[in-house]
Every structure is written in C-alpha cells, then in structure tokens.
Amino acid sequence: MGSCTAAVNHPQYIPPLIWGKSGHIQTALYGKMGRVRSPHPYGHRKFITMADGATSTFDLFEPLAEHCVGGCTWEFGAMVNYIKKTYPQTQLVVVGFSLGGNIVCKYLGETQANQEKVLCCVSVCQGYSALRAQETFMQWDQCRRFYNFLMADNMKKIILSHRQALFGDHVKKPQSLEDTDLSRLYTATSLMQIDDNVMRKFHGYNSLKEYYEEESCMRYLHRIYVPLMLVNAADDPLVHESLLNIPKSLSEKRENVMFVLPLHGGHLGFFEGSVLFPEPLTWMDKLVVEYANAICQWERNKSQCSDSEQVEAEVE
After folding, report:
1. Among 98, 129, 216, 251, which one carries the catalytic annotation?
2. Angle at 37 between CA 31 and CA 43, to 5 degrees
3. Disulfide check for 230: which of 37, 247, 251, 253 has CB 3.0–4.6 Å away?
C-alpha cells in the first residue's frame, strides 16, 4: 500500500570547500573540537549500580515538545533495561558512534529480546571486525599506523591513571595476567599490544583472535531485524576500505539494512560549511534525525493501515 511508506530524502553531503575533502582534517577537527558550537540537549543524569560494584552513569534525554511525527554490552544493556522499565510505553532509537556502533549492533544481535521496543538502529563510522581491522592498523597508508600509536598512547594514559583500582594488591586479577604483562604496557606502541598483553587477559580470553572475534559485532549483524542504517565515510583514515565490504554485503542481502557511504567525512566528521568555519550541526547529525523521523512516520502509517484493513475486513 503506497500510503504505508516513508522516505529519507536527505541531501547529498557537500564538505567545506577548502579543507572538507581531507578525511584527516575532518577526523582531527572532530577529535580536538568535537561538535563545534553544537546545541546540547537537556537531560537528566542517571546512575545505576552495576553487578561488579561500579557505577554506570548516563544522561537521559526527553523531548521538550511533542515529536513532529510521533563489544561489552552489559553496561549498555543495563541502561536500556532501566529506560524500558522506567518508561514502559516508550520506544527507542539506538545510535552508536565508532566503537559505540559496534556495541549497539552487538547488543541488538545477541538476542531478539534486546530488539523489543526498538524502532531502529544507526551505526556511524564503526569498523565491524576488530580481527580484520588489526591488520590494517599496522599499515602506513592513510597514516593508520600513526593514528594507532596516538590511540594506544591515550589508552595507556587512561589505564595507568587507574592502575591502583585495576591492578592494585586489593584487586583480584585474572591468573593469566602477570606483572610482566603490566610492564609491557609501558612500552606498547599499538592497540593490539595493549589488547594482547592486558585487555584480553583481563577479560579472560585465551588469545587475541578469540578476544576480537567475540567482542566484534560482525557475526551478530545478520540477527538484527529492526531497521538498521550503517554509515561510513570513504575517506575515513581509521576504517580501511576492505572493511566496508561487510556493511555493503549485508545491505545487499537484508531488506532492513541501509548502507550509506559518502565520499568524504573522515572519522565522525561530516562537517558542513561554505569555506573555513563549520556549521554547528553536521550532515551526519541531520541524517540520523531524518532517518529516525522517517522510521517513526513509517511505524505510524503501518499502524493506521493495519487499523484500516481490520475495519474493511469487519465490514465485509
């Protein structure tokens, strides 16, 4: 029925003239400045005590007005379950960025129960398979090896700043995690070295291959049945072009999957603007909102069509 459809008519992405076609500049600008002058939604800070005694903190955003059209996943799952329990009548639009895209897709694909009350899912700039990505991160094209070094250095700083809480004498560490592994952390120059020497042992995996396979969303994507939009940029310096075959192949096989691949945008950039200065809202921000609006409209039309068909059947 033609009336029971909704379309996403989003304009083509046109990057800023001077610097917008450089994925490196887009990536660096986002990394240093985030969303330039972006409006921030007003939310309520929520706290959940997790099973291990830690506290998960998140912001719950509620609309200020009526809507115009009506890897480790247990922490994310706890937040989702809290929202479902607190607001049982609401439906969710799930959005993940970069590693967050991997988490939300893996969470939805782990069990069909996780997809209940979920209208749709959007994943932006994720790599889909950590096992495949690790090889490309050691290559120098697109400066991936340099990005790898920078991210590894930042991760080391985060881990070492919390070393007492993570590896102190009062903490029960996995038997496979030895003091020599922690000493290797200081000399690590790549994410893979950190993952192999510390992270996979900390989480109880026997090998780096097992760790990456289990924590990647690739083998869960085909179990997602809600509308799913996967967004990447062709010039993303962190996601090798070979990894884009995963969402491309999935979108060709599954009707609920849409793969969006603009030529430019970098890693989480997608800035717009005439010449030098980026606009407050990016092309990707607008795309996510428009896609969510279209899905909401589609659900609304589908419900109306079902009611009409039921009335017609009763009349006959």
Report:
1. 98
2. 95
3. 247
* Residue range 272-306, pLDDT digits in tens: 887 677 888 899 999 999 999 999 999 888 877 76
What is the spatial distance between Cα 46 and Cα 59, in angstroms, rounded to a whole number? 6
User: Which residue out of 216, 235, 264, 267 is catalytically annotated?
Assistant: 267
**170 among known catalytic residues:** no
pLDDT digits (tens, 9 = 90+) for 75-117: 899 999 999 999 999 999 999 999 999 999 999 999 999 999 9
Tell me which DSSP letter residue 285 carries.
Answer: H
**What are the phi and psi torsion angles at 45 (to 5°)?**
-75, 125
User: Rounded CA gap, 237 and 153, in Å?
Assistant: 18
- Residue corresponding to tokens 């992405």: 13
Taking only the tens place, the pLDDT of each residue in 179-223 is 667 788 899 999 999 999 888 888 889 999 999 999 999 999 999
Predicted structure pTM score: 0.78
Amino acid identity at 128? Y
| β-pair type (55-61, 118-124) | unpaired
Residue 127 CA to residue 68 CA, distance in Å, equals: 33
Is 267 an annotated catalytic residue?
Answer: yes
**62, 64, 67, 70: CA torsion to nearest 10:** 50
Catalytic residue among 236, 240, 251, 264: 236
Domain boundaries, the chain: 140-215
CA angle 309, 314, 316 (to 5 degrees): 95
- Using DSSP bridges, classify how beta strands 118-124 and 228-231 pair: parallel, antiparallel or unpaired: parallel
